[in-house]
Each structure stands twice: as structure tokens, then as C-alpha cells.
Amino acid sequence: MSTKQFRLELREHFLRQAGWCEGRSPLYASLCRRLADDPRLDRLVRSPRWDAPLRLLAGVHYLVLVGEASWDDVGAALDEHAAFLSRFVAEQDVQTNEVQRSWALLPAILSISDGRPLDLLELGPAAGLNLVWDRYAYRYVSGAWGDGPLVLAGDDRVPPPPELFGVDVTVARRRGIDRNPIDVTTDDGSLLLQSFVWADQQERLARLRSAIDVVRDSPPELIRGDYVRDLPGLLADREEGAQLVVYETASTQYLDREQRAALQAALHHAGRDEALTFLTTRSNAGEDFYTLEAITWPSGERREVEEFDFHGAWLRWL
Ligand SMILES: C[S@@+](CC[C@H](N)C(=O)[O-])C[C@H]1O[C@@H](n2cnc3c(N)ncnc32)[C@H](O)[C@@H]1O
Fold it and tell me: pLDDT at position 286, please?
């Protein structure tokens, strides 16, 4: 690719990202617009990938969080930390974990609980913030549930049935498998996860920090691996006397048809002899929300439970 073509493509990505940030992150929208024509990008970005702006801004955010840069002078950060930033952009995949999705997940889990302790297996948990959902407090129009330092609330457009909030659950085991897990019990892992939150989304950052503290208290088991490949082995390892609940949010959408089929086959096979439930998010083209489905084996019965905003800001119980 010629230098001119490289610059044009990169410029396009920054301008497109500016549009996506518009209204949600004024800071990132304006930075992306300014950076689109910044010649320093040639040194900082080696391939004109669509997520280069997110990677670069996360790198700068990381430096801000450790006190080595300031949002008031991003130019200085680009000059003084060029080596760190170009490595960050080249090597660091965008990695996020949205704890607000627990607010949508909780009523779904309560609705499928059969009274036994839960054996949780999350596919694509990132840092595992949604694996410790039972340690957060929740508020809905129709009720409240749980106790904890982090209180999750949202806009319940059609609230879950109030009787759900009388359901008591215990968790026997919590496991997650991710190809790129983040260990927030380390300072670097915690900073890395924070760095991918848009820096002027203070509420989101505060929620994330609070959830990180909860995870740090007693972290879930995070397994590094590909869940399409490793699921049969994980499903064969059952916690005696517990109800197996497998779930995922914002992860299987990245699978191709073949991988999706392999995942379904593994669940179907494991659920033939001993029941299990799979909670999964699906989004249709053009929609800006997920539909959460509960599939229960051995029957294979599928139920649409709710719709919720991609980040869990609102929900509509079905
Ligand atoms: C957009 S993030 C969502 C993280 C988290 N579930 C949430 O809702 O905040 C998608 C996650 O799925 C993981 N992932 C995607 N495909 C995977 C696979 N085949 N095996 C393991 N992890 C995978 C990614 O590494 C990433 O952590």
C-alpha cells in the first residue's frame, strides 16, 4: 500500500470513529477528528486497521491513568511516548468488559434458577466482572435484589416480574473461558481494562472500578482458551448437585456459522444426559439492542427472555 493510500485509509478510520463517539464521548470525538490529519500517526500506527483510533486512545488513556500524560496535551504524549504508543497500538487488542450487562443478566438468571446452587460457566468473560454478579446490588422499577458496594440500575422499560426478586441463589462455582482474559487482580490488568473505557465516560469508569474491587476480593476462575474448541471438556466437568448455567454476552456474535454450530452441538451433547441452560445474546441487523435467549436442554426449548440495550442501559422484559 502506498503511503498516500495508507494515510487516506487511516484518516477515514479516525473520522468514522469520531462519528461513532459523537454524543457519547465529546472528548474522543474531537480528538479523533484532530488526529485524523496528524502526521505523527505515520510513526504510531503500522497498519490502517479500523480499531487503530480506539487502540491509540486507549494507549494515551493508560498513560493518563499512570500520571504520564494529560488530556490537555495529547500532542506531548504522542511525542514523548511514541515507542510505548506504537507498541500498544500494534499489540493490544481492544478489550472491554461491561459490568452494566449484569443488570440485564440478573433477572434472566433468577428466572431459570431451579433452587440448586449454580455452577456458572461464562463464555468470553474478558475480566470476569459478570461472573460475580451475585455480589452486586440491583435496582429495578419492580424490585431490588442483592447487596454490595456496586449498585446497578437502569431504565426498565418493561420491568421484570416482581416475584423474581424474591428468588435467592447461591453460587457453587464460577468459571470463565476467554481467548484473551484480563487479570484485574494485577495493577497492569486493572489499568488496561480501564484504559479501553472512553475517558470522559466517568460514570462507566466509576462502575468499572467498583466492579474491579469486587472481583479482586475473590476472583473467579478465568481460563485462557478458545471456547468453541474447549467447551466439550468444560461441560464434562460438572459440579455435583449444582445447576449448570452457561452464558455469554456480546461474545458469540463474533463466531462464524461453523463455530456457532460446533458450540450448539457441544451444548446439545452435554445437555442430553444432564440438564443445562444456556443464556445467550443475539442481535439482528439494524437493531441497537440484544435479545437474550434461554435455551434449556435436554428438551432444547428456546425462550426469548428480554431485550436490552447493547451496554445494559435499558431492558424490556418479554
Ligand atoms: C466484546 S467482549 C465482551 C466481554 C464480556 N462478555 C462483556 O459482556 O462485557 C467479547 C469477549 O469474547 C472473547 N471471545 C470471543 N470469541 C472467543 C472464543 N472463540 N473463545 C474465547 N473467547 C472469545 C473475547 O476475547 C472478549 O473477551
Answer: 86
Please report the pLDDT score of residue 2 as a whole number: 85
| CA separation for the pair 235, 222 (Å, rounded) | 15
The whole-angstrom distance between residue 96's C-alpha and the CA centroid of its chain comes to 5
The rounded Cα 135 to chain-centroid distance in angstroms is 18
Which amino acid residue places its CA nearest to atom 16 of ligand 1?
251
Ligand 1 neighbourhood includes 103 CB (under 6 angstroms): no
Preceding omega of 162 cis (within 30 degrees of 0): no
Where do the H-state alpha helices sit in the chain?
A: 3-21, 26-35, 41-44, 52-65, 74-80, 82-91, 101-112, 187-195, 202-217, 227-236, 257-271
> Could you tell me if 126 and 95 are in contact, meaning their C-beta atoms sit under 8 angstroms apart?
yes
- Cα angle 34-37-41, degrees, rounded to a multiple of 5: 100
To test the ligand 1 pocket, which listed residue (178, 223, 227, 231) has its Cβ within 8 A of the most ligand atoms? 178
pLDDT at position 285 is: 85
* Cell numbers at 311, concatenated: 451496554
Considering only CA atoms, which of 257, 253, 254, 267 is closest in space to residue 300?
A: 267
Q: Give the per-residue pLDDT at 297.
A: 97
Assess whether the C-beta atom of 126 lies below 6 angstroms from ligand 1. Answer: yes
The answer to whether the beta carbons of residues 281 and 248 sit under 8 Å apart is: yes
Q: Which residues of the chain are under the pLDDT cut of 50? A: none
Q: How far is the CA of 110 from the centre of ligand 1 (A)?
A: 23
pTM of structure? 0.95
Q: Which residues contact 27 (CB under 8 A, 6 or more apart)?
A: 71, 198, 199, 200
